[in-house]
Description:
Layout: E1 7-11, H1 15-20, H2 27-41, E2 47-50, H3 53-56, H4 59-76, E3 79-86, H5 90-101, E4 111-114, H6 124-133, E5 136-142, H7 149-152, H8 162-174, E6 188-192, H9 199-202, E7 214-217, H10 226-233, E8 240-244, H11 246-249, H12 255-271
Parallel strand pairs: 1-2, 1-8, 2-3, 3-4, 4-5, 5-6, 6-7, 7-8
Bound molecules: orotidine-5'-monophosphate (OMP).
EC number: 4.1.1.23
Active site: 85
Catalytic activity: orotidine 5'-phosphate + H(+) = UMP + CO2
Amino acid sequence: MDRRGQLCVGIDPHPGLLAEWGLNDDAAGLERFSRTVVEAVGEQVAALKPQVALYERHGSTGIAVLERLLAECADAGVLSIADAKRGDIGSTMAAYADAWLRDGSPLAADAVTLSPYLGFESLRPALDLAAETGRGVFVLALTSNPEGASVQHTGGPDSRSVAARIVDAAAAENVRPEAGAEPDLGSVGLVVGATVGTALADLDIDLAASRAPLLAPGLGAQGATAADLRRTFAAAYPNVLATSSRGILRAGPDLRSLREAALRTGAELASAR
Length: 273
Ligand SMILES: O=C(O)c1cc(=O)[nH]c(=O)n1[C@@H]1O[C@H](COP(=O)(O)O)[C@@H](O)[C@H]1O
């Protein structure tokens, strides 16, 4: 982010987008779509975030395309975030961690998105493997969809909301006193939607203190702007990696148009007030 700015481009090969790009809704279309995005913006943006579901719907051939895409991200020198939203009991979580975060795994990415619905501590195998292999995780805290609040804003007996507890748990992970001179950010990131409005203040959440990289979806197709992000995240804004999928992808398949869309959005993020 220091070198390339605060934009992540999501790679979401929806059937409708494939058709708009003149591609078939099959593995060959998926491969062409994925390669085009890497070629257009892979040397320009901080990260690419393939949406795993859109590869899974093609079965094993789609997963094979995803494997190649993750390898191509590494070759292009751009960070990859596998948007898989995994979460399960610890013993199964170890297998998910192995799939997405282990050196040499065919699906190894630089980071993976995780769902803490089974309890933050159930994510332990992924937290530990990420720390061990120099990777990262992004744990859902306040999601960008309107339905998220019904779970994430609710509080327990101490009235701290579910989202605030997840942020607190990530913050505790990101403090590693034994590490000596620490980098600004830890490896346990959080997902906080660009669309959450005043929720951070309402729920008394201090994101800046969490030292978490903040993956913020909702820019573009879901209606949020760079100015919304600036306002919503306030002091934590420098830690935000804003992610946009359809908002950028609709400019394709022309390479230059895709690049320009990403450049324009990146510039808006850099100058947001
Ligand atoms: O983890 C995510 O990236 C994510 C979390 C969230 O709260 N909201 C959200 O939209 N996402 C993902 O971000 C992408 C948003 O796509 P666009 O709305 O097309 O920019 C999709 O792949 C979503 O699954």
